[in-house]
Amino acid sequence: MANAKATGSSVADASTKNTGGELLQLVSFNIGEEEFGVDILKVQEINRIVEITKVPRSPEFVEGVINLRGKVIPIIDLRKRFQMELKQADKDTRIVVVNIENQVMGMVVDAVSEVLRLPKDTIEPPPEIAMSIDSEYIQGVAKLEDRLLIFLDLSKVFSEKERAVLSQL
Q1: How far apart are CA 80 and CA 62, in angstroms?
Q2: For 101-106, what is the mean pLDDT?
Q3: Which residue of 56, 101, 145, 149 sits 20 to 30 Å from the alpha carbon of 123, by its own alpha carbon?
């Protein structure tokens, strides 16, 4: 693994050289002990944590809103959304700004890891036994050389009704 890092390629890149299949590019991030990935095409940018303005009577998983270059966007705490233990923001905490069905929002994550290029066929359907988050949000699980990555389906992380509420913030 040290060799792969030294040459600038990742373990995931090395596994793609032998397959002629379609590649997915994912942004990977951590929440607690879990590693998640989202389609890079849905990610607009990744920012350090900034001051978040609370919004009264917003859903519990909504931290508030921020001003991102003149546009007010809702900020979601994925720990709250996935009913995980809460954690204080630190130097590694990031806001991943995503576009979900033409709605821009930020997701608070513990740390952003890397961009991975994976063959589509390395992503398997989620296991029947749910992990620490509801399996309805999981598009699949990627088996990497030394770890598992949960591939999130962002369109299912928030219901249509919840996205409508978020658009009003």
Answers
A1: 8
A2: 90
A3: 101
CA 67 – CA 106 distance, rounded (Å)? 11
> If you ran DSSP here, which 8-state letter would residue 134 be given?
-
- List the domains of the chain with CATH numbers: 2-167 (2.40.50.180)
The SS3 assignment for 96 reads strand
> pLDDT tens across 72-97, in order?
999 999 998 888 899 999 999 999 99
Pair 80, 107: CB distance under 8 Å: no
* Contact indicator for 33, 148 with CB cutoff of 8 Å: no
Q: CA angle, 33 as apex, 4 and 139 as ends, to 5°?
A: 80
Cβ-based neighbours of 157, under 8 Å, separated by 6 or more: 78, 81, 100, 137
